[in-house]
Amino acid sequence: MVREEELFKLPEGYTDEMLKRDFDEVVLEIEAEGGPQPDPEGFERLWRKLIKEHENGGHQ
To answer: Residue 4's Cα: distance from chain center in Å?
Structure first.
């Protein structure tokens, strides 16, 4: 089983500066595409997916 701390460790050689650069690139890409788009049906879609997964025995 993976410990929570392991999930947040940076891969070897991946610096904080690299992480910030990659994050900034993603933010710029999202803004270039018009920013975050509203998804009024997103919650319902996610809820249906979670219910289906639960009925099928959990996340597959």
So the answer is: 16
pLDDT digit string, tens, across residues 28-37? 998 898 888 8
**In the block, residue with structure tokens 């597959």:** 60
* pLDDT digit string, tens, across residues 1-27: 567 676 666 677 778 888 899 989 998
pTM: 0.44
Q: How far is CA 57 from the centre of its chain?
A: 23
Confirm if 29 and 21 have CB atoms less than 8 A apart: no
Residue listed under structure tokens 């879609």: 45
| DSSP structure class, residue 15 | -
